[in-house]
Design a protein that fits this description.
201 residues, 8 strands, 10 helices, 53% helix, four-stranded antiparallel beta sheet, alpha+beta, homodimer
């Protein structure tokens, strides 16, 4: 399991065996059952996690309504990065949508590793850049795309979500009502676009 | 002018005089007149800039309409960070809303500095984290706040923008029509909230 994580790290920066030994001493494993909450509003997110298996949802509650912001799939790093960086209470919930296995490092240990291993700082920078790209792409879509365009992006770039995530969460993620989501989906399927149909197969 | 930049760097990481000498050799100054474009759609953003004076707007064009995403004020670092990290053509325009003076470093030089000065990597990480926080805060507001709440945030946290940015850009920034913006503003002023009134004084 740790070798999967080392591969993921190496994708960004390669570490010597000695450096990796030090890093891996600070990693701990945690498992969550489907529907369990990894983080709740008001708690400080004190870790970065690598998702070995499963899928998590990142949402907040506004006027009693859940608003889904992001999903993270296996082999990705995630965190409530706002709460993590600022060490402030989260405004989010993170939920396991399937049984999940996580490899985690705490903020305190990450800060120590930044001091011990200069190359780890590069890993931190690239991780921050990637989390930036993910949320920036989301913002641009939110501001500039019509519901149809957002749906098209979902089908073409994130079709895995369609297979594994309940429809009401996807409609919230796209910022449309469940009814609008159904209408758009129907329209897409009726165009007989092969890739669209395949995504729902 | 460079001392202002050194202060800004030192806010994140302190460098020795030798390190700072090396960094400052890679910095160049550029000035832009009001309404001049610093970046246009289709061009790759190859720099990070520190805004010594002025204000810039970051927008994209969709169906012939300008959509304002962010503003950056003096003493802040900015870039089209998506284009910069991925080295891909930008989907944005960056416009000087006032006469602007910038201190800039190119991506190639930044990458060299990451290799020469390990502490510079820390600066890069913290800059990426801050740009993450800025766009993440924006996303959360977009997804969860009513137009009135967005307007309230503008007054209480970004009142400088009200003084220096044309109203039609602010309405686009909040994701409301200019008419809705006027209605909300009128309602706020009529409540006689001192801070609201002061923001428009």
């Amino acid at each position: 399991m740790l070798s999967k994580l080392r591969d993921a790290f190496t994708h960004y920066v390669s570490f010597t065996d000695e450096e990796w030994d030090l890093i891996s001493q600070n990693i701990f494993i945690k498992s969550y059952k489907k529907n369990e909450l990894l983080l709740t509003e008001g708690k400080i997110c004190t870790y970065v996690a690598f998702l070995v298996g499963g899928i998590v949802r990142y949402y907040f509650v506004r006027n009693g309504k859940e608003i889904t912001v992001q999903f993270f799939l296996e082999n990705s790093f995630f965190s409530d990065y706002r709460s993590f960086i600022r060490r402030e209470p989260s405004t989010f919930y993170i939920e396991a949508l399937e049984d999940c296995t996580l490899l985690m490092i705490s903020k305190d240990d990450i800060d120590k590793l930044y001091n011990y291993i200069p190359r780890f700082e590069r890993f931190g920078r690239i991780m921050a850049e990637n989390l930036y790209l993910s949320i920036a792409d989301k913002t641009i879509r939110l501001m500039g795309e019509s519901p149809e365009e957002k749906f098209s992006t979902l089908i073409h770039e994130q079709s895995e979500l369609i297979r594994r995530v309940p429809q009401y969460m996807l409609s919230s993620y796209l910022g449309v009502t469940p009814e609008a989501y159904c209408r758009i989906k129907k329209r897409f399927l009726s165009t007989n676009n092969k890739k669209s149909v395949a995504a729902f197969a």
